[in-house]
Inverse folding.
């Protein structure tokens, strides 16, 4: 019993550690005072001001568009690559996996700098598209690693059966393989989306002066003080994700329930 | 590695498919990897060659080792030393915090693993710069932690703008990357092996040291790499929580690029990459089989 209590206490402590800054940020979004240091009464004005602040909204749009596009493109390229890698012989497969590991294990700062140097060497203007390319680059490996385990669990005979029954390879892929690996594809997509949303370092080096994502916008404000609208925005984003996750979890639980009774 | 062998005996591998080319039943799908190969050559391999080129040349395109030698400059050497110290300490703290947590979570009766993973990943949805800035609020002399400490009559904590605050920021930001790989390995350990050890008379400490710890080593190793590399190379956390007094190697590199010294910046990045390569080599030694799937 004592051990149980201690374990729960420990998990609670770590969760407090992980979530304390988030609680602070949510509280700050309701703070009437512009300063972080003192409490100026409860207010909703930052939430109203947020939607009128064009530069923050522009940064939000840029962030979301880059996250969605990069996750989507990375998912397509990554899923295709995972299928191909899975069918390779041992040596080429090892080489491919090693290359896939590079951007995951390499430091963000080195990846960012190397991409920036490439763009500059090619005289490619830094801006929206260079950030997008960079995000796709660091996202693809995560998609591959999410899809690979699902491909390994796949029963090869269902695909062959589909072909024997007269399905074209493309039709068989969409009807037989894709549904089986879809959870992995989806995980890869969300992982890529999240990583793109949260990235600062690589964007910092590859973005050029023209555009801002939320991260780089926040970074420029670290010294002069963060605008409270940013707290409001991140609170909204966090709560949205939280609600989505709760809904998904509920649905999954409902789905699982009948299985158990059987 | 006897236990590994025991594991293999217990769970015989499915008959290996000899014709690996058709393990999926799909032949001729190699072309599917062409976009990926092109992309990776274009945006991973070539950029690394470009950084190598910049690191080994001067402005007038002649070969030099001075940019790499710049690491020997006392300021840069100190920055590297502090970064190494801080990242090693924070990796160790992460490991000590994460291992018990992963063990408790892996034993919990939670039905869905994805829920636990979500709880650990969820903080990432609040921008990481903002979360780090929030620690300023928590740590300040008049911050919340000190108010609580004062309330209980405890001595106040004064660590903002010191190396300790940077270590805290590193542990905070990278702890999930230590918890998840270890958790993922622990939940895959066959309960029968643990029960067998207990049946054969091992006490819980022995079971842990002889069974659980060796089997979880791949997760520990990938966790260490995933915490060590970003801690070693960060410039943001030291910027926000260390004031401007503490300079890490990441800060030096970022500064060099900001003021336009691309060659020296690249040279120092190459030095940094040596450390990254070492940790990658260590990781691949332990991570041969899983092909990275242990990471998530």
């Amino acid at each position: 019993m004592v051990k149980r209590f201690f374990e729960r206490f420990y998990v609670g402590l770590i969760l407090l550690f992980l979530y304390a800054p988030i609680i602070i940020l949510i509280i700050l979004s309701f703070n009437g005072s512009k300063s972080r240091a003192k409490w100026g009464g409860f207010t909703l004005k930052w939430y109203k001001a947020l939607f009128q602040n064009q530069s923050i909204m522009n940064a939000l749009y840029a962030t979301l568009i880059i996250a969605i596009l990069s996750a989507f493109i990375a998912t397509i390229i990554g899923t295709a690559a995972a299928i191909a890698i899975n069918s390779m012989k041992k040596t080429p497969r090892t080489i491919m996996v090693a290359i896939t590991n590079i951007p995951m294990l390499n430091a963000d700062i080195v990846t960012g700098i190397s991409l920036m140097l490439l763009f500059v060497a090619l005289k490619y203007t830094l801006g929206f598209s260079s950030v997008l390319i960079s995000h796709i680059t660091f996202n693809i490996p995560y998609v591959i690693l999410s899809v690979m385990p699902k491909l390994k669990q796949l029963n090869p005979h269902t695909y062959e059966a589909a072909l024997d029954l007269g399905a074209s390879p493309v039709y068989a892929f969409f009807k037989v393989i894709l549904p089986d690996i879809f959870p992995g594809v989806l995980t890869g997509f969300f992982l890529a989306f999240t990583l793109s949303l949260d990235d600062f370092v690589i964007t910092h080096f590859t973005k050029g002066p023209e555009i801002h994502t939320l991260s780089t916008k926040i970074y420029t404000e670290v010294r002069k003080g963060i605008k409270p609208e940013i707290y409001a925005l991140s609170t909204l984003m966090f709560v949205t994700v939280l609600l989505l996750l709760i809904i998904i979890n509920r649905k999954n639980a409902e789905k699982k329930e009948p299985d158990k009774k059987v | 590695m006897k236990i590994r062998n025991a594991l293999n005996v217990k769970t015989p591998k499915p008959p290996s498919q000899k014709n690996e080319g058709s393990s999926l039943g799909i032949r001729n799908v190699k072309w599917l990897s062409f976009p990926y190969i092109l992309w990776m050559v274009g945006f991973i391999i070539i950029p690394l060659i470009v950084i190598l080129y910049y690191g080994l040349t001067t402005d007038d395109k002649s070969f030099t080792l001075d940019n790499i030698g710049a690491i020997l400059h006392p300021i840069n050497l100190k920055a590297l030393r502090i970064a190494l110290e801080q990242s090693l300490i924070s990796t160790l703290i992460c490991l000590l915090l994460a291992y018990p947590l992963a063990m408790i979570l892996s034993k919990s009766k939670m039905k869905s693993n994805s829920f636990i993973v979500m709880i650990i990943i969820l903080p990432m949805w609040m921008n990481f710069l903002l979360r780090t800035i929030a620690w300023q609020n928590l740590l300040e002399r008049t911050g919340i932690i000190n108010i609580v400490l004062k309330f209980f009559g405890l001595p106040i904590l004064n660590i903002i703008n010191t190396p300790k605050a940077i270590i805290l920021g590193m542990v905070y930001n990278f702890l999930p990357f230590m918890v998840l790989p270890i958790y993922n390995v622990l939940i895959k350990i066959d309960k029968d092996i643990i029960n067998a050890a207990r049946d054969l008379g091992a006490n819980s400490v022995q079971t842990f040291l002889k069974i659980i710890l060796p089997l979880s080593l791949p997760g520990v190793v990938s966790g260490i790499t995933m915490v060590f590399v970003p801690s070693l190379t960060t410039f943001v956390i030291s910027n926000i929580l260390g004031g401007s007094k503490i300079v890490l190697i990441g800060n030096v590199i970022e500064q060099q690029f900001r003021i336009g010294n691309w060659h020296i910046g690249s040279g120092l990045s190459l030095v940094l990459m040596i450390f990254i390569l070492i940790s990658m080599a260590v990781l691949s030694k332990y991570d041969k089989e899983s092909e990275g799937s242990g990471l998530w």
